[in-house]
Amino acid sequence: MLTLKQIITMLHQKGHKVTPQRLAICEILFSYKSHPTADEIYKRVSQKFPTISLSTIYQTLNLLMKLGLIQELGFPNISSRYDANTSPHIHIICPKCGNTQDYEDKKFEELWSKFITKLNFKPIGQRLEIYKYCDKCSKIG
Amino acid sequence: MLTLKQIITMLHQKGHKVTPQRLAICEILFSYKSHPTADEIYKRVSQKFPTISLSTIYQTLNLLMKLGLIQELGFPNISSRYDANTSPHIHIICPKCGNTQDYEDKKFEELWSKFITKLNFKPIGQRLEIYKYCDKCSKIG
DNA sequence: TTTTAATTAATAACGATTATGAATTAGGAG
DNA sequence: CTCCTAATTCATAATCGTTATTAATTAAAA
Fold first, then answer.
1. What mean pLDDT is predicted for residues A118-128?
2. In the Cβ-directed half-sphere of A2, how many Cα atoms lie within 13 Å?
3. Measured in whole angstroms, how far is the alpha carbon of residue B71 from the centre of its chain?
4. CB of A110 within 8 Å of any CB in chain B?
5. Domain B87-140 is found in CATH 3.40.50.2300
6. Do A80 and B80 touch (CB under 8 A)?
7. CATH of domain A4-69
8. Lowest CB count within 10 Å: A63, B20, B32, B141, which one?
9. pLDDT digit string (tens) for A61-108?
10. CA gap A52, A55 in Å, rounded
11. Cross-chain Cβ contact B77/A75 below 8 Å
């Protein structure tokens, strides 16, 4: 996963401005191993920047995606989540609330990577997902 | 993939009515190896039932999902697609238009199935997806 | 044939995300 | 350091896929 310094360099290189808002958003995405929604990022950045707009969060997320630094995990009906780890790995996801956690299996990741390289094209992303109601959601029903 | 007869039996068993609208929707889902959107289904069923409502399409899709007969493939910003093949297989998807095609690799499917059975829980679904702009969308940019 | 709960269909409502546009600001030029 | 300008931010409106609501209709059991 990238460091903030690397991200700043990358933004400068591609001619994008490095704003405090962008840094705050990146800090959340790249410092924690979570998969936050836009709104979760918004709430956390708001603590530092009380006037930040949700709009800015989405614009920054879209920029980071265009640069290939993060991946969007979209689901039906519920908010997308954003993952700063773009290398292949398995997610275990609750289809009701979207709670997403990594499932580490180095062997399988390696196998999948090999499979990807054998394709006759270069994919721009991939998803390996297993669905399972989380404890909270399976209690509610 | 299930036949219409099997679906009818299943609906009766679970106490659901077998309506001409539901049959028409199932016919589209289970007779072709496509992954249509709700609107695509709506347009096709409308030819037979000009007064059908998009609402009915969604209600039927949700029923079929609850029965575990189809899987929803949801994406950010674009319409979900519905797949009547619920056994594990790889999709190649255009992230722009959502065009989805199957990628058959029996060996990998077997490997994944084995992996699933080794988990200490029974998943309610899974997705194996590779993203790649389709010819149309990569031309537009 | 009658009855009744399930289903349909039309429309309103919802919610996540994008679009718009005026005000602000990062960062280069002088 | 100051000025300039295009990029960015922020507030709000708009969009669009999907769900909720409800009156009218219908499948299917009695």
1. 93
2. 22
3. 5
4. no
5. no
6. no
7. 1.10.10.10
8. B141
9. 999 999 999 999 999 889 999 999 999 999 999 988 999 999 999 999
10. 8
11. no
